[in-house]
Design goal:
Structural class: alpha+beta
Helix content: 40-55%
Low-confidence stretches: 1-28
Order of helices and strands: HHHHHHHEEEEEE
Number of helices: 7
């Protein structure tokens, strides 16, 4: 991030000869260029893609936590029933053959002490032994699920913390990009804001053709960080929904989206292939003829651009 001041720090070298002092001139701030603005937006989009991935991770962890919590509730029901059944057996055994001090262990809420009490009872018949073994398995399974739940909850906390830091970085990068953009001339701003929305018809075949058709229908929709439609998009959100409309399931984030396909060379590119920056911060769909449809950045809309505008990694998903 660049920090600008109204005047550069002045370093002075003083040479005293009578009243003569020499001072070096102040350095002017460098002029902001369109390339500077694009780099700032690129940093913001990279943070956005990382945030998208963390958001997906937290959703998956929420799902796992809910799933394991449900399993724990069911296992606890079985645990309570088995414990109650074993307790009833012990009451009956006590009536038939007093157990002495051992019976005190059976009132413990500690499962290990409870099992110790049961194990000390030599008079248990084979049916009760089987029940004890089943209860032990249930207890072990309950402890396993509780450990999984604790692990998922810890991971969720880590992901949420990372997401908050990434969101802050995204906001800072975006604000820097906006500040840089505001320093450009009106002509430069206009050239960076224009979008090519020329329609391309009947490109591709099969799923690729359907994905392209869907993306074409979004031409002119605004870019929004985290956007997955129906009326606003970020780059990977547009690719995700375009291929979903073609019956192909893709991950949410650029890197995994590219990994879901088969790598192809520039010479082998076909309409419908995914094209991305080597940094995995941006993605689009190839249309053929050196053209790409993509959701570019805030302040612009879904547009058609040149393959040569930064795309250097290619993959085929169908």
């Amino acid at each position: 991030m660049r920090f600008r001041t109204s005047a550069a720090l002045v370093s002075a070298t003083a040479f005293v000869a009578g009243s003569f002092i020499v001072v070096s001139p102040a350095q002017a701030d460098p002029e902001v260029t369109q390339a500077d603005v694009e780099k700032a937006f690129d940093r913001a989009e990279a943070a956005n893609e990382k945030l998208n991935g963390l958001t997906e991770d937290t959703r998956e962890l929420d799902r796992r936590i809910a799933e394991v919590s449900g399993e724990i509730r069911q296992i606890r029901k079985v645990y309570r029933v088995q414990r109650a059944e074993l307790g009833a057996d012990i009451v009956q055994q006590q009536l038939e053959q007093p157990l002495g001090p051992t019976v005190g262990l059976l009132a413990s809420q500690d499962p290990d002490l409870f099992i110790e009490g049961l194990s000390a009872i030599d008079a248990l018949n084979s049916t009760r032994a089987d029940a004890l073994e089943s209860f032990t398995r249930t207890r072990v399974e309950l402890e396993k699920r509780q450990a999984q739940l604790a692990e998922h909850q810890e991971s969720l906390g880590d992901k949420v913390e990372a997401a908050e830091k990434t969101k802050k970085k995204l906001d800072e990068s975006y604000q820097q990009a906006k500040s840089d953009f505001a320093l450009l001339s009106a002509a430069q701003q206009s050239s960076m804001s224009n979008s090519d929305v020329t329609s391309v018809r009947n490109a591709g075949a099969g799923a690729a053709k359907k994905a392209i058709a869907f993306a074409m229908n979004q031409l002119g929709d605004p870019y929004v960080y985290g956007g997955t439609g129906p009326d606003s998009w970020d780059c990977s959100g547009l690719v995700l929904k375009a291929y979903a409309a073609a019956g192909v399931s893709l991950p949410r984030v650029v890197g995994p989206q590219m990994a879901a396909g088969r790598s192809v060379s520039a010479a082998d590119l076909q309409p419908g292939d995914l094209v991305a920056y080597s940094s995995m911060s941006h993605i689009g769909i190839y249309l053929g003829g050196g053209q790409v449809i993509h959701a570019p950045r805030p302040g612009k809309s879904v547009e058609i651009t040149s393959l040569s505008s930064g795309f250097g990694v290619y993959a085929r998903v169908s």
